[in-house]
């Protein structure tokens, strides 16, 4: 059986994080359809590319991760997200849990992220 290549977009206000993530994912046979640095770009990129998974940070300028998640879910209620954040906040964790969105803390474990994307 041929396994379909998974596709993602990577959104984080830290350019190095976006670049490193993208390189790692490409090397792991995950198609990176685009990258961005704020919530507004995340929404635009999602609409343009329709990725399998959105890797997104929460604390960003120009539209937080939660704002982007809400807007993307209006476009596709089944959109799949992985939040990668350095913020350790119980309320954020609780909100993500209610939304059924996995949270990966920075510094992140790339193998853990791969296993979620490929699930």
Give a quick precis of the structure.
With 119 residues, the chain is of the alpha/beta class.
Q: Can you describe this structure?
A:
The chain has one domain: Response regulator (Rossmann fold), CATH 3.40.50.2300. The chain has 5 helices and 5 strands. It starts with 6 loop residues before the first strand and ends with a helix. Strands 2-1-3-4-5 form a 5-stranded parallel beta sheet, with helices on both faces. It is globular and about 35 Å long. α2 packs parallel to α3.
Name the features.
about 120 residues; alpha/beta; Rossmann fold; five-stranded parallel sheet
- Separation of the first and last Cα atoms: 16 Å
Radius of gyration equals: 13 Å
Question: Any idea how many domains?
Answer: 1
CATH H-level superfamily: Response regulator
Order of the strands making up the biggest sheet: 2-1-3-4-5
The strand count comes to 5
Number of continuous helical runs: 5
What CATH calls the topology is Rossmann fold
Give me the CATH architecture, please.
Answer: 3-Layer(aba) Sandwich
Encode the helix/strand succession as letters.
Answer: EHEHEHEHEH
Q: Kindly report the average pLDDT value.
A: 90
| Low-pLDDT ranges | none
Query: What is the CATH class?
Result: Alpha Beta
Helix content: 40-55%
The main β sheet shows up as: 5 strands, parallel
- Rough shape? globular
What secondary-structure arrangement, pairings included, does this model have?
Layout: E1 7-11, H1 15-27, E2 31-36, H2 39-49, E3 53-56, H3 65-75, E4 80-85, H4 90-99, E5 103-105, H5 110-117
Parallel strand pairs: 1-2, 1-3, 3-4, 4-5
